[in-house]
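Title: Comparing notes on inverse folding

I've been comparing how different people in this forum approach sequence design from structure. To keep things fair, I'm posting one structure and asking everyone to reply with a full sequence. Here's the target:
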């Protein structure tokens, strides 16, 4: 008998989010009902506290005993191991689909579903990882350590709004994960803000940054990507969510890197 989402517990839904968005063996400890996976986006920023926190700890303490560039690369590698490169896979599919699919909706969707990576995906990932490493290396370790936690949780909170702004572009049977995220209610929206805003607000306050710049510019990146996705395929996919999350996060790093270049932190 299939469990209804309203019959599940809140801790099962959180557990499902950590199982879905990481490759750590949480499933060995507890397996929540399948219905809980419809709500994983509502707890997505919580997983950012794990991935961003791990990166921040490695950047801060690693920089005390290793060259900073080596530390940054190790931090990136650890996040890839924790997530199984889930979002990077989505980013590659996003570049392939939107780069090679032209304006044909079904072709874009078919390319994104194809497990093979194409030229656009390879080049997109290379440039993304180079920019990610370069921006982190350009920022002092103590700043970068807090920044990765703030950007990780914030970008996941922002990207979750795609679920409300457009429908799913496929049906459940065609979905890679065989799950379609449900549209969340106002209470879930408040919960997302509680999960995703505190680290960013603390980082802005700690570094004395302009909150309008730090919030507005990544939001512009999100909105431009939303317009692109809506114009091309009239709906989101899991790959779109992963790609938007990484690009919004990268925007935060680019903004802080630019601020640091003009006025060292």
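Reply #1:
Here's my take.
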């Amino acid at each position: 008998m299939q469990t209804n989402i309203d019959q599940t517990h809140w801790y099962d839904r959180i557990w499902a989010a950590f199982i879905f968005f990481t490759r750590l063996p949480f499933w060995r400890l507890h397996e929540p009902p399948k219905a809980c996976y419809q709500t994983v986006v509502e707890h997505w920023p919580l997983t950012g506290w794990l991935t961003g926190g791990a990166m921040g700890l490695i950047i801060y303490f690693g920089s005390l005993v290793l060259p900073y560039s080596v530390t940054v690369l190790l931090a990136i590698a650890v996040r890839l191991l924790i997530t199984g490169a889930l979002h990077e896979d989505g980013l590659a599919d996003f570049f392939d689909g939107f780069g090679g699919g032209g304006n044909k909706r079904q072709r874009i969707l078919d390319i994104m579903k194809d497990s093979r990576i194409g030229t656009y995906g390879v080049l997109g990932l290379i440039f993304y990882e180079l920019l990610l490493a370069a921006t982190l290396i350009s920022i002092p370790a103590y700043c970068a350590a807090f920044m990765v936690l703030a950007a990780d949780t914030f970008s996941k909170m922002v990207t979750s709004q795609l679920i409300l702004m457009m429908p799913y572009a496929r049906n459940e049977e065609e979905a890679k994960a065989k799950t379609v995220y449900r549209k969340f209610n106002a209470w879930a929206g408040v919960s997302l803000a509680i999960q995703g805003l505190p680290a960013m607000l603390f980082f802005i306050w700690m570094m004395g940054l302009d909150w309008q710049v730090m919030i507005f510019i990544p939001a512009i990146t999100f909105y431009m990507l939303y317009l692109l996705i809506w114009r091309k395929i009239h709906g989101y996919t899991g790959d779109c969510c992963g790609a938007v999350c990484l690009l919004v996060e990268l925007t935060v790093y680019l903004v802080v890197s630019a601020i640091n270049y003009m006025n060292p932190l």
